[in-house]
Amino acid sequence: MYQRKRNALLKLTALGIGVFSSLATADSMAQSPTPKTTSINVDLTKEKGPLKPIWAWFGYDEPNYTYMKDGKKLLTEISKLSKVPVYVRVHSLLVTGDGKAALKWGSTNAYTEDANGKPVYNWTIVDKIFDTFIERGMKPIAQIGFMPEALSTHPQPYRHQWDPSHKNYDIFTGWAYPPKDYEKWSELVYQWVKHSVAKYGQKEVESWYWELWNEPDIPYWKGTTEEYIKLYDYTADAVKRALPTARMGGPEVTGPLSENSQKFFKAFMEHIVSGKNYVTGKTGAPIDFITFHAKGAPKVVDGHVQMNLGKQLRDIDKGFEIVASYPTLKNLPIIIGESDPEGCAACSEDFNPQNAYRNGTMYSSYTAAAYARKYDLAQSRGVNLAGAVTWAFEFEDQPWFRGFRDLATNGVDKPVLNVFRMFGMMPTTRVEVNSGLAYDYNRVRDESVRAEPDINALASKDAKSAAVMVWNYHDDNVPVPDAPVSIQLKGIPGKKALVHHYRIDKEFSNSYEAWKKMGSPQKPTAQQISELEKAGQLKEMTAPKSVAVSSGETTLNFTLPRQGVSLLTVTWN
Description:
This protein has 573 residues and is α/β, with parallel strands linked by helices.
């Protein structure tokens, strides 16, 4: 049962807003000197290549949430925020079960066997999941896993029960084991791909990504590294036999900073390049894209949440370094299959105070700062970053703002989703932002953001518009005075331009603050829900304003709160 009083106390502890700390913080803010103005120069004449929609990728553990009420609502909103198709990655698409959703669990019953051991294929639930995506113009990252009960070498126990208190954390049950028959597994994969082509058409399925498993370097895979490699060979062969033009990849290892992950990742890559194929006997295995994960590591320090953006960027950079070390593979698309502030979406703040960042603006400012640096890291390593999956969705029938890593709660969008709306509004050609600011990608990667704040920007343009996303991020979630910001824009044609200013902070685009002002109701009225839905949308901070342009330049001045994000769009004739 949801213990509201207990959880409220945990929130106070995690956020550092007990009575005495609140008074001390307010007093220190009153005594703080006014911050210096941060000047950000954006030069529209200096192009830095395409601003690829690496943010238009999402994923989650529980596939059966896909077609539930709030799941469909959120997928519709996600699909609308992007000009390009959004890719969606989910677990458990081959897990045996009745299709009922639960935390960290999902099933489709795609594969069973009759009394004689003959395969029985049932694509009803898998199709229901993929239909929900495709009806909205979205694309699956079709994750081939996990092991059906009838194929598992260790089938019992099979169904796990996730306990958010971590008293029962062993979720790695029968579905995590290798197959007892690799030929039957291969035929299952072949039949799935053939069915998909028959149902959705070859052109549609060619636009998907097919991948094997999830995090096989930890107990998500109960086999050895070599057994995973063997499974990959059988899986890739089956996919390519069913559809030679299908895109197949892996290995979706955890953060490459860890020694175990690096060892697994490199063994896989060596096999792809020069190993003996378990199916064909030839050298190597087919691969069309490469995947790995990257996570930060928040903790509670002195009564407040402290993030660790640098750790996530070091994960990413190490993954890029490993890929770049293989000349024949370094130009393949890379998908960061999970790219998040930490590792457990279903770990609410009830039992994990460090996750108290998730409901408010710290999650949104972190996301803005993180994605901007992913572009820089890929460019510095000379690799082809195609996408970075935000592993966050929604959790049906859970208490309001429980502190899961999700994009919406009970059908109401949280502030972080509005960052993705901002990304979706940005044109596709990246332009230069001056390098004289406190942080660049190297410093954030190496030090995280523990000294001065990271007040910085990402900018892009097209023929008749430009957009500048500006954030005021710090790893430590403590209140400070708002920061003055001055944006100098260069390279605007004409003598006038129209500016729209969108904002995410405590006042704008923030359903969580609106909910708290209502008294944090766990049973909001229909009118309150309507108000929360409106508060969860991206809002303009001011009315659109016409600004004068002189010699191609204009200056935009404003203040930006800590953990706030602004998007300024500029249009001209």
